[in-house]
Design brief:
The protein is mostly helical. The chain has one domain (25-97, 109-200). Helix content is 68%, strand content 0%. It is built from seven helices and no strands. The longest helix has 32 residues, at 159-190. Mean pLDDT is 91; it is low at 192-198.
Length: 201
């Protein structure tokens, strides 16, 4: 058996573990809530206020680049990569006997757009806050992870979809954060305690 087949089998096994063996009726509502965008509105409002209070000089720029990061991850994951890979979502594969908690959605699932978008934003915010404020906020990664775990739990993605989506989102964030750094670099250099972007990675 080749390495690709081994990875696919492992992906399916882990999917079934999360979707079926680790599932419970009392968890279903929570998982549906975690993957709902409206659930996270308080977080986004908090970040808007936090950025305004702690990085006011770059506030508008941060918002613009957050939108750009999201736009790139969402467009390329859903409109370019999914049609290219054409990997069916697990909920459409009868042999997996998926425990469906929500509707199946579009035909293809690789990469997960949720993973691309949320890990992209998590990486972008993590990097720029580390650069501007010298703070490393690790809970961004937990936020992205729980949303993506819920995607597997409800039956719409394989764990592999999540991993590829996360790597793609982080890759986009590395580019957008580098551009952000380039455009704001002259201002950062004027700060007494400024430091290089590579320390944020």
């Amino acid at each position: 058996m080749d390495i690709i087949s081994l990875l696919q089998d492992a992906d399916k096994s882990l999917y079934q573990l999360i979707n079926r063996q680790l599932s419970a009726d009392w968890l279903d509502g929570m998982m549906k809530l975690l993957r709902t965008p409206y659930t996270w509105i308080p977080l986004y409002l908090f970040l808007l206020i936090w950025f305004y209070r702690n990085a006011r000089k770059y506030w508008l720029m941060i918002i613009i680049f957050s939108v750009i990061t999201f736009a790139f991850t969402d467009f390329f994951s859903s409109k370019v990569l999914k049609p290219s890979f054409q990997r069916a979502r697990p909920c459409y594969v009868a042999e997996l006997n998926t425990r469906s908690v929500v509707g199946c959605g579009g035909a293809y699932g690789l990469p997960s757009s949720h993973a691309s978008n949320h890990f992209g934003l998590a990486a972008f915010w993590f990097i720029i806050i580390a650069v501007i404020r010298r703070k490393k906020i690790y809970w961004f990664w937990l936020w992205a992870f729980v949303i993506c775990y819920a995607q597997v739990y409800v039956g719409v993605h394989y764990p592999g979809d999540i991993v590829i989506g996360a790597l793609f989102g982080i890759s986009i964030a590395l580019v957008t954060s580098a551009i952000f750094h380039f455009l704001s670099h002259s201002d950062l250099l004027k700060k007494r305690n400024s430091f290089s972007l590579h320390k944020a990675y």
